[in-house]
UniProtKB/TrEMBL annotation:
GO terms for molecular function: diguanylate cyclase activity. It comes from Colwellia chukchiensis. Pfam families: DGCcoil, GGDEF. This is diguanylate cyclase. NCBIfam families: GGDEF. It comes from the Bacteria. Residues 349-383 form a coiled coil.
Amino acid sequence: MTDKAVSDKAISRLKARLDRAVSARGELEQALSAQSALLIGFITKLSLACRGKDLSLDNKLAKLRATLKKSTNFSDLEREIASISPLLHQHIAQQEVDLKALQENLLLSALSVQKSQTTNAGSQRQLKQLIDKTKRGASSLNQYLPLINEFILFFQNALLSLQAASTSASSDNDNKVTPENNNADVADNLGKASGNNLDVITKETQERFNSILNTLVNTSKHKADISKVKSSLTEQLPTHKLLTKCLHVFDLVLDELQQERASAKAFLSTLSEALHSVNSSVTSTITSINASNTEHDALNLELKTHIKTISDDINGTNSLLDMKTGVNNHLQSIVKTLAKKNQLEAEQRLALNDKLNKMSAQISRLESESESFEKRIKEQQIKSMQDGLTKLANRAAFDEFFAMQMVHYHHQSFDLAITVIDLDDFKRINDTYGHSAGDKTLKAIAKTLMDVIAEDAFICRYGGEEFVLIFQGFDKVTVINKLNILRKKVASLPFTFKGNRVSISLSLGVTFVQAGDNIHSAFERADAALYRAKHDGKNRVIYG
């Protein structure tokens, strides 16, 4: 074999090694592309999990998702992430709470003070303004916070004024003051300033307050406190004592809100830090890849130059010895260049794997926290749609469900019936045996509804002693038969309070949705049928 053939064979082997190196680099870039796609997919899902916290944040995250879908330019992504990061620090999640209950608690406190007439004209005007603001309501918790601050300042000023006007100073100033005791001091001062002549609250007011307590979504932390307040409601409860209860409940609601805000803030801070860390890692990886690409290009150019020089030497020399010497020198240079290239690729793989492992650990931690937070949000959403006392669906859940069924009905007609139920003479149970007996009655009725009719109808506690049923796919005769079975079942329940046997009955009004109905007209027709059932002697079903 001639020296030229040997050289050609060596060059072929070198070209094969070069091709393998290029192929290995292509595989590395393909793996990086797949891992980047995985990371982009997770960031997209994570941004969707944050939806609904804040409008501006939603818009920014939507823009980021759009950029991730259509762009491979990392400078665009850097700009979007840089604009999102400050928002994540500035905004916290606004948790959905029962705003109506909060509004009623504020009104109840303010109206109690207004009724006592213990404040001066200026304070009365300020109180009226607060009542007007509260009646207008708000669409979010943050909109209530300034109003809550105004209420706190007003009560503080009222307390100071009453203390200054009081002729008998308290001798217990050294006692430890708790929020509940402080609320009692405020209410007692109101009672003293009015000559201890405050009216006893009406049963209707007590029942309204009890109903509000039942609608509160409270955690196990405050469950015992709420139960204690409910059990303390008596027939002879003075107005200033009710104010004490209102203020205590108000403190519990505020504590619950603060906990939810702190939890949301902690999660968003973690999310912000993780996204910032991922952004830094991606930027660092891109910079490293660009630098490596430059070095690869330089080494590839060096290899091509050596190969071209070998080819030129072979073609341009007549001396076999010179050609052999030149080829050997160039081969040694090529071997050194390939060694550099292999070392560079190995270092790049190690650095890339290290960064990907770190990002994977960060993402796993964030994913775990995200799942935990999402679980809490779902639990809160379920609680917000559930009546606290009976565990049935509440009015908010009814409004949502019935509105959806009305949309389906008007799209394609089907049998859709609504029933309004009221417990007969329920007020007598509360007045005679107390609110705890009333609560037990409501729970027993709710359980009976679930046992008898849960498979056939949507059931909710509408408020107080009223329940609502929604039937789908049953004709008039079937619905009325089912309601009569329910009515007879309730009438046969063995209620006993304080050793006395008590009979409970239901009055029911039912109607079917018609072509021209909306949610209000259908409900009003069923409610009118309920009124006729009450008027005609109770314990009956009337179709309207």
